[in-house]
Amino acid sequence: MKNIAILTGGDSAEYDISILSAHTVLQHLNPVLFKGYIIHLKNDKFTVLINEIKIDVDKNNFTFEEENKRISFDAIFIALHGSPAENGLIQPYFDNLNIPYTSCNAKVSALTFSKFECNNKLKELGFSCATSFLYKKGNNIVEEEIISRVKLPCFVKPNGAGSSFGVSKVTKKEDLTKAINTALKHDNKVLIEEFIDGIEISCGVYTNRNNIQALPITEIVTENEFFDYQAKYEGESQEITPARINKKLTIEVQKLTTDIYKAIELSGICRIDYIIMNEKPYIIEINTIPGLTEDSIIPLQVKAANLKLSVIFESCLADTK
Prior knowledge:
Elements: E1 2-9, H1 15-28, E2 34-42, E3 45-50, E4 53-56, E5 64-66, E6 69-71, E7 75-78, H2 91-96, H3 106-113, H4 115-124, E8 132-136, H5 143-150, E9 154-158, E10 168-170, H6 176-183, E11 189-194, E12 199-208, E13 211-221, H7 229-233, E14 238-240, H8 247-264, E15 270-277, E16 280-287, H9 297-304, H10 309-318
């Protein structure tokens, strides 16, 4: 039986979602193959909870002592959204200890976490993304220049954050500065992106014994201005799986998802979000550590595929490097 550390916590606004995701992973790990331990990371300190008692994890070798026995780990299942996992800061630590993990490496994580850089890379590789503008904290906000690039309406979002924290839809020029300042609460860089009017969808993808597998597609319908935090986690949306798009487009999006996974060299369970306008899918975002809560999209897609989360998690752990 392998010992699996399920890493959660972190330093971002997605802390609570990370905790819920970790408990989903623990609940669905195959108990015949794996012994799961939830490892909590906060303020650069690792702890594990055993029988309601917090035990410190030794940072020198990522082990801890339980009943006079030293516990080490065969692999890390990363269920930590935001920093320091989704942006690639924690991965070199595990690389140095030669402990494999389920998410992308540091280089890929850093790229995908920067929405602006990732979109530019995707465009270089021939994929379609929205036109965007990057604002950096401290620079002058030249509203005319930004609007001439992306037009109105547009979306303003932190360049590196998830769960729709700090995201605004701007329809009037006079609201742009306020939206930028809202996004700056979550990141020093702000992505301003053209509004693509169409059907919002999301497609999960993972590796199964090194074969890239796309999951059924989810269509996201919300009466809110966009798929914000309330829509994602507080029931203010419909997440329809499989999506109500034709078979040809379904096959195209699933192939596109596996092509992106391969081209960007993704690992583990990922989710790619799109908006379809005039039968053409535009990439909105790559999520390298997507939510795994009961309300999250990936578990819905796994169920629609007649698969079990335990099987998906086992596949991801088998493919750790």
